[in-house]
């Protein structure tokens, strides 16, 4: 773990809103660790179902699972972990690390490693003696991120006396846990959140707090400075949810799918662009996935694979994939209900070796009990990469013959532009090339101004319009009009005045020619028709201008209302600041009075001690005086006795 940066971070939330894209982009070309080579194999079962492959004493490896297109159960040797769900896994080299989770009656804090080359289980840290401060509390619903040769654990349901998210680091070499002391605006403690990594930045979204409330806040942790920061976004984002799936695509777009909200289990899909910090709801084509919670997903090149989960106690059997360039859902695999891939609260990781890609799933809650089995699915290379130059409509079908799409959109992607076509055009692309069902925010805000200027130009130049282009709905099913493109006037077309002048000259020169008179009448009729058409078009342009002016006035009023609200909030903040200053003055006065009272107490305690000493001396003197008085009383009694005897003697 790298040490925190010594400089303090002072950032304004509003000014830093767009700076995060630069921070994310700086990590796009970070050199990636070369993974150790991995050999996986299996043999397809004749019936097409799941096939269990053992390792026969640890010598056999999975070397040819590429022929099997189903989820294949494997039986690694060694000490198998306890059955669990809501755990977390990650991959470092050829090692799959499993941490925590929950059994039927308790949470776990153990660490297990599955060596994917040798197919052997082993437990880490069990024989290492550690201090109580280096012992991970039992946890579930946490997130696990690989960072170099360490594993980072973020959040989760832990029995700790804190209301903030905690971060732990596990060193694979020393097998020690260390609590990471992060600074900044640390988020509230939660479980069921998602944490995605982009370079040295962790992005955390959603989850459920200790009171059971669903969250949809967004926070980032810089692993170099160890500072938490909240992110401010615009647009209608996902509703508060937990146990959803999220992934960081191209270190720029955060994808969020499904999960449990306050009232239902969801199957909606959202994307956050870190360049504009704008949420958009995506509506891909293809087969719509069923709602699910407790599922797991991984990104493999341009496809997002999601498996497992449940809806109202019913587990989901299909493994789905989102083709991001085509923006289309597809069923990658349908497994049986006794498969690990259909469990709830399972984990899913991706393992790659050159051109071979494997999905590895572990654990989760099955139909009757929790599981500790491992299954592998081979992803063929043809399924990993698809052409990024084909666009799909809302029904998921390609439209290569769409006349509005420029021909360049159907050509191969340029080697210098490796960013996927669809999501990279969410911001700046014209509407014909935009993703179906989504309009960029910048386009929405600039269309009114552009249309207004285009309308003024048309009115001044008296140019007629061509046919209106189709409209493109935005992410929330609203329709935004595109400004119409003026159609250039052809050479053979002339204005009304020019036609009339030409016709007058023809009458003077050829007044006796009947044929010319007929031609003149036809030209006049055509000129009148064109004039009427132009007037109708000008009237339509004027109506559109009036409508745009109304929208502009409405936007101005909304801006004024927002400014008024901002001023009110500013005044409230100023009032709170004055109250805070007054409370600080009162606090200072109370501190001064407290000091005075303390000094008076000390003086009184000193006087009291002096009086106690005087009282003790007085009591001693009184005791001595009482002794003398007693002796004098005894002597007086003796004198009375002697006096009485003397009287008796005198009388006798």
From TrEMBL:
* InterPro entries for the chain: ACBP4-6_C, Kelch-typ_b-propeller, Kelch_1
Print the keywords alphabetically: Coiled coil, Kelch repeat, Repeat
Residue stretches making up the Acyl-CoA-binding domain: 597-652
Q: Which residues form a coiled coil?
A: 526-565
Q: Name one Pfam family in it.
A: Kelch_KLHDC2_KLHL20_DRC7
Compositionally biased intervals (Low complexity): 38-49
Show the SUPFAM superfamilies listed in the entry: Kelch motif (SSF117281)
Q: Where is this region: Disordered?
A: 36-58, 387-419, 463-513
Compositional bias (Basic and acidic residues): 489-504
Write the signal peptide boundaries: none
For this protein, the record's PANTHER family field holds: ACYL-COA-BINDING DOMAIN-CONTAINING PROTEIN 5, GALACTOSE OXIDASE_KELCH REPEAT SUPERFAMILY PROTEIN
- The identity of this protein, by name, is Acyl-CoA-binding domain-containing protein
Organism name = Selaginella moellendorffii (Spikemoss)
């Amino acid at each position: 773990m790298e040490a925190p940066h010594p400089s303090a971070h002072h950032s304004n939330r509003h000014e830093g809103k767009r700076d995060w894209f630069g921070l994310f982009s700086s990590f796009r070309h970070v050199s990636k660790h070369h993974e150790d080579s991995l050999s996986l194999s299996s043999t397809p079962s004749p019936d097409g179902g799941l096939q269990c492959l053992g390792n026969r004493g640890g010598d056999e490896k999975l070397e040819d699972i590429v022929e099997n297109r189903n989820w294949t159960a494997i039986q690694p040797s060694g000490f198998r972990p306890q059955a669990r769900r809501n755990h977390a896994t990650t991959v470092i080299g050829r090692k799959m690390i499993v941490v925590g989770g929950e059994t039927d009656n308790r949470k776990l804090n153990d660490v297990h490693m599955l060596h994917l080359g040798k197919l052997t289980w082993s437990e880490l840290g069990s024989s290492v003696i550690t201090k109580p401060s280096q012992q991970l509390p039992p946890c579930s619903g946490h997130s696990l991120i690989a960072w170099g040769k360490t594993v980072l654990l973020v959040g989760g349901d832990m029995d700790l006396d804190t209301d903030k998210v905690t971060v732990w680091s596990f060193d694979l070499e020393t097998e020690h846990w260390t609590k990471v002391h992060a600074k900044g605006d640390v988020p509230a403690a939660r479980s069921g959140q998602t944490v995605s990594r982009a370079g040295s930045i962790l992005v955390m979204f959603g989850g459920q707090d200790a009171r059971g409330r669903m969250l949809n806040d967004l926070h980032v942790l810089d692993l170099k400075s160890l500072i938490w920061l909240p992110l401010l976004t615009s647009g209608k984002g996902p509703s508060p949810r937990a146990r959803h799936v999220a992934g960081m695509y191209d270190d720029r777009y955060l994808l969020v799918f499904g999960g449990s909200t306050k009232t239902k289990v969801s199957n909606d899909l959202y994307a956050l662009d870190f360049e504009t910090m704008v949420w958009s709801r995506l509506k891909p084509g293809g087969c719509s996935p069923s709602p699910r919670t407790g599922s797991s997903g991984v990104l493999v090149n341009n496809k997002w694979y999601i498996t497992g989960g449940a809806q109202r106690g019913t587990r989901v059997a299909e493994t789905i994939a989102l083709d991001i360039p085509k923006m289309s859902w597809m069923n990658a695999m349908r497994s049986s209900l006794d498969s690990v891939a259909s469990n709830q609260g399972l984990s899913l990781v991706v393992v790659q070796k050159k051109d071979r890609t494997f999905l590895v799933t572990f654990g989760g809650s099955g139909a009757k009990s929790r599981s500790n089995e491992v299954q592998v699915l081979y992803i063929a290379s043809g399924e990993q990469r698809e052409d990024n130059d084909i666009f799909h409509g809302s029904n998921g079908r390609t439209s290569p013959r769409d006349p509005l799409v420029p021909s360049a959109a159907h050509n191969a992607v340029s080697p210098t532009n490796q960013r996927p076509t669809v999501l990279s055009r969410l911001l700046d692309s014209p509407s014909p090339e935009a993703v179906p069902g989504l309009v960029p925010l910048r386009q929405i805000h600039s269309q009114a101004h552009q249309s207004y200027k285009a309308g003024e130009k048309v009115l001044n130049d008296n140019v007629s319009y061509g046919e209106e282009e189709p409209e493109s709905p935005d992410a929330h099913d609203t329709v935004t009009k595109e400004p119409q493109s003026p159609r250039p006037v052809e050479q053979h077309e002339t204005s009304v005045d020019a036609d009339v002048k030409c016709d007058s000259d023809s009458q003077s020169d050829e007044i006796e020619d009947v044929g010319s008179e007929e031609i003149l009448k036809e030209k006049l009729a055509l000129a009148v028709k064109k004039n009427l058409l132009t007037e109708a078009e000008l009237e339509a342009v004027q109506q559109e201008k009036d409508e745009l002016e109304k929208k502009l006035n409405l936007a101005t009023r909304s801006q004024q209302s927002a400014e008024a609200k901002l001023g009110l909030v500013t005044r409230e903040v100023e009032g709170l600041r004055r109250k805070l200053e007054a409370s600080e003055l009162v606090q200072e006065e109370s501190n001064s009075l407290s000091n005075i009272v303390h000094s008076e107490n000390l003086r009184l305690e000193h006087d009291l001690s002096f009086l106690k000493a005087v009282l003790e001396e007085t009591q001693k003197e009184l005791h001595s005086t009482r002794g003398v008085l007693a002796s004098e009383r005894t002597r007086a009694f003796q004198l009375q006795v002697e006096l009485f005897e003397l009287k008796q003697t005198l009388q006798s």
